[in-house]
Amino acid sequence: MKKLKRSSRLVEMTQYLLSRPHTLISLTAFADRYQSAKSSISEDLAIIKEVFEEEGIGELQTLAGAAGGVKYMPHMKESTALEIMEEVCLKLEQPDRVLPGGYLYMTDMLGQPELLADVGRMFATAFMGRRIDVIMTVETKGIPLAYATAACLNIPVVIVRRDNKVTEGSAVSINYVSGSNKRIQTMSLARRALKEESHVLIIDDFMKAGGTIQGMMDLLHEFKATVAGVGVFVESGEVELEERLLEDYVSLAKLTAVDMKTKQTKVVPGNYFKG
Amino acid sequence: MKKLKRSSRLVEMTQYLLSRPHTLISLTAFADRYQSAKSSISEDLAIIKEVFEEEGIGELQTLAGAAGGVKYMPHMKESTALEIMEEVCLKLEQPDRVLPGGYLYMTDMLGQPELLADVGRMFATAFMGRRIDVIMTVETKGIPLAYATAACLNIPVVIVRRDNKVTEGSAVSINYVSGSNKRIQTMSLARRALKEESHVLIIDDFMKAGGTIQGMMDLLHEFKATVAGVGVFVESGEVELEERLLEDYVSLAKLTAVDMKTKQTKVVPGNYFKG
């Protein structure tokens, strides 16, 4: 790269950091890239750090020493997250979204890249600091949420299949009971898809009693993996407490009431906002 | 937002633009946001534009006039794309990737957020300038590629289901013959998922004869939609010419030979690189 003026270097460094979240970049690498003294690079990083933190874009963690460098960690301010989710809740309350079984139609919203990027940033904020090697979800609707979160945390995604079509070598299958319709279903994951003893963050779009997520946890047990956390976009509060299969999860929104006759629903921000 | 110094403003403007691809931002909006004169904003944008274009990050399109403003369009240099795909081809040639039926195991690669971001940028570059309202894919493995592309183009994704479980209101289903195993299969899309007369970019992970993509095209016909383009990550050259169902597509890599006995494959960069 040709030597840049300071103003151009700031633009380039900003884009470089933003496109490499959770990646340690050494001062030496930056100094080489921009043919500049480390002292100038440090000054630039201080400016970037201040803007990122003031605007709530993310943290710029600097590590001192020979192995040191800088790492950008995407983040979202709680006030920004709440503003976004309050708008989401209003949209989710539109009466034409009520589906049989008390589900909500939200496929359209899960198709919007801007909202997904925001949601990924919220989950990345909620689980920042935990050891996470991989994100797991089950097909189909949780997939974009899992990838949006993975992009912020710079870790891979594995997708559990809802059948046991083994086209990818040996697989582990388990049966689980979906809490909502009480039917026994199968989910499976190829052996090669997940290293044993991984720390796994589970992400899904909707949770009622939690049967599907419990199924993923059982599957993880077969891989000797550790559950690093559970994040769901919307939880349903329309579940008896004794039916709820798990306690420790983060939800961004909560469906608190569904009237199937009038198609009226009530959706409020989830437990993410009670920390 | 408080008034920023020029260096901080450059950092903030860079991140603001990068997080809003294909979105027109007026000079007035920037001037208000940063409490600065339009002339200063224009100077800043000129610096950002130069860096983005020199580094091949993207184009910064400026539109003059009252409705004018600036729009960031992610882009990737052909040389960068080729470098990335040559590395991908080498990985795809690893012998343990050959699956029954001449398929390749690439789920692990489609789980990597960094590669997905690169691939999304390649497709965004290939189809830049076309009118595209929405991206379509069929579950499951094409989904991350579709979202990565959608994030660059700032348009929504619709996912076609491989069954006809109608849980989202009325749906359109079609039968199609998968070119590889000649079995009749079903795919369906909820009526509400796609507006009629949309311009649709089809994205998928793997194409052999093209039966699945032809199925999506038939489905689009039912929605009076127009196919704006077809992009596949890997195409298989292991198909007789007369079996190939479509001509007009963009592939990033091409599987040219599979020896099921030795598990040796040959993968080369796709027709993306012959434009």
UniProtKB/TrEMBL annotation, chains A, B:
PANTHER family: HYPOXANTHINE/GUANINE PHOSPHORIBOSYLTRANSFERASE, PUR OPERON REPRESSOR. InterPro entries: PRTase-like (IPR029057), PRTase_dom (IPR000836), Pur/Pyrimidine_PRTase (IPR050118), PuR_N (IPR015265), PurR_Bsub (IPR010078), WH-like_DNA-bd_sf (IPR036388), WH_DNA-bd_sf (IPR036390). The keyword DNA-binding applies. This is Pur operon repressor. Keywords: DNA-binding, Transcription, Transcription regulation. Residues 5-74 form the Bacterial purine repressor N-terminal domain. Homodimer. Gene3D superfamilies: 3.40.50.2020, Winged helix-like DNA-binding domain superfamily/Winged helix DNA-binding domain. Pfam families: Pribosyltran (PF00156), PuR_N (PF09182). Residues 110-243 form the Phosphoribosyltransferase domain. Belongs to the purine/pyrimidine phosphoribosyltransferase family. PurR subfamily. The gene is purR. GO terms for biological process: negative regulation of DNA-templated transcription; negative regulation of purine nucleobase metabolic process. It comes from Paenibacillus soyae. One of its GO terms (molecular function) is DNA binding.
